[in-house]
Write a structure and sequence with these properties.
Helix content: 25-40%
Structural class: alpha/beta
CATH topology: Spore Coat Polysaccharide Biosynthesis Protein SpsA, Chain A
Low-confidence stretches: none
Mean pLDDT: 88
CATH class: Alpha Beta
Distance between the termini: 38 Å
CATH architecture: Alpha-Beta Complex
Number of strands: 7
Order of helices and strands: EHEHEHEHEHEHHEH
């Protein structure tokens, strides 16, 4: 399956160029269709790093998109996925903490689009490199979300995931939806699966989230996603009969 790798980025100079180069090394050329970096109005050298790689000309399919106004990670992901040409999407955070070497293994668990099997495979970080307070906050958030949504996702905050492009584009869009993709895929009748992945320390820049800010947004979104799940019904089709067209 050919895959488009979408990387949302905000002020990730020192990380984004290295991550793009790694992606072209770690994902086999016959699997990698393109890499799309979506810059959410960075104020540092994020754009310059990607443009320099494009100018080098050794990375086929590398594309740089920049938002006209800062709109958040979910909006950046959606921009890249809308622009993608492959039926399969892989997403990673732009901070370099996700390891592109995990992408082929996640894709190996993914069912081919429109067939039976997982439409999304999410990464689960087995050895978190974040500071202790963030790990504790993440555990609590995962526990609370699972109690409410019952999606059995052990690590919804992990940025590396692979999934069907068409299925994603049929989901309701809202800011912060990237944290609820497993629950949304399940709500719309798809199977999901999880695989352990590598977690790496941030080398440059700083995190865009705080525990308090993430908690406030998370509770607000959790209420909304819970409402969506209760109000959405996708019945299975048990019969599909049609009359063949009469030849002219």
């Amino acid at each position: 399956m050919r895959v488009t790798v979408v990387i949302p980025a905000l002020n990730e100079a020192g990380n984004i160029g290295r991550l793009v180069e790694e992606t072209y090394v770690q994902v086999p050329a016959e699997m990698l269709a393109e890499v799309i970096v979506v810059d959410d109005c960075s104020e540092d050298g994020t754009g310059s790093e990607v443009k320099a790689l494009i100018a080098r000309g050794s990375m086929p399919g590398l594309r740089y998109l920049r938002h006209g106004e800062r709109s958040g990670q979910s909006a950046a992901m959606r921009t890249g996925i809308m622009a993608a040409t492959s039926p399969v999407i892989a997403t990673m955070d732009g901070d370099g903490q996700n390891d592109p070497a995990d992408i082929p293994r996640l894709i190996a668990r993914l069912a081919a689009p429109a067939t039976k099997g997982p439409a999304l495979v999410g990464g689960v970080r087995t050895d978190r490199k974040a500071e202790g307070s963030k790990r504790l906050a993440s555990r609590f958030a995962n526990w609370l979300r699972d109690r409410v949504l019952k999606d059995e996702c052990p690590d919804t905050g992990c940025g590396i995931k692979v999934y069907w492009r068409e299925a994603f584009l049929r989901l309701p869009y809202f800011t912060s939806m990237h944290r609820y993709l497993p629950a949304l895929f399940i709500t719309y009748g798809h199977e999901v699966a999880y695989e352990p992945v590598n977690d790496r320390p941030r080398i440059a820049g700083k995190s865009k989230y705080t525990n308090l800010g993430r908690a406030l947004i998370g509770i607000y979104d959790l209420v909304g996603v819970s409402w969506i799940r209760r109000r959405t019904k996708v019945p299975p089709i048990v019969e599909d009969l049609r009359r063949r067209a009469v030849p002219a």
